[in-house]
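Audit log entry. Action: structure prediction of a protein-small molecule complex. Ligand: zinc ion. The ligand was supplied as SMILES and no pocket hint was given, so placement is left entirely to the predictor. Protonation state taken as written. Sequence taken verbatim from the request; no trimming, no tag removal. Recorded inputs:
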Amino acid sequence: MAIEVKTEIILEGIKSLIEFCGDDPARDGLQETPYRVLRAFQEYTAGNREDPKKHLQKTFQVDHQELVLVKDIEFHSLCEHHFAPFFGVAHIGYIPQEKITGLSKIARMVEGYARRFQVQERLTAQLADAMEDVLEPAGTMVVVEAKHMCMCGRGIRKTNASTTTSSVRGIFANHSDARAEFLSLLK
Ligand SMILES: [Zn+2]
């Protein structure tokens, strides 16, 4: 199917959704909305059109074999069950063996996995797996804290609820003191 044809179908679908919600897609404020929604969704899912691991591939040799912790990496994602935003911060720690990567590269990698239809649990695991695959560290630990609009705006309406998930690999999986060091640096 040609992309223009598909776009037409999608725009018609968004108009139908507006009608389904009880509003008039032809009224002033909503006329351009289907185009804006289409463009917004392209942006929300930009991570599907890249391999986020590639950001980590520029590595440096170092002799540092202690914990490297990158805190408070902001991200915005979209819950795959409701297409509702969830957003928050990721904290990523790893103990390098030979390779380290730039801090901004880690943030870009997070962005690449966040910008897709996601669930927080999978996002957390993908971040840990990407670090393991590319940097081959002694271990990786990832903690993600997020608020989910699908919990705030609908259903049970818990405005302040936040969800924390973690993934541990390598030394962090086997050593509680490594996890404790990570968590003490988070505070
Ligand atoms: Zn949801």
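Audit: result stored. Residues 172 and 180 are 9 Å apart (CA to CA). The chain has a mean pLDDT of 93.
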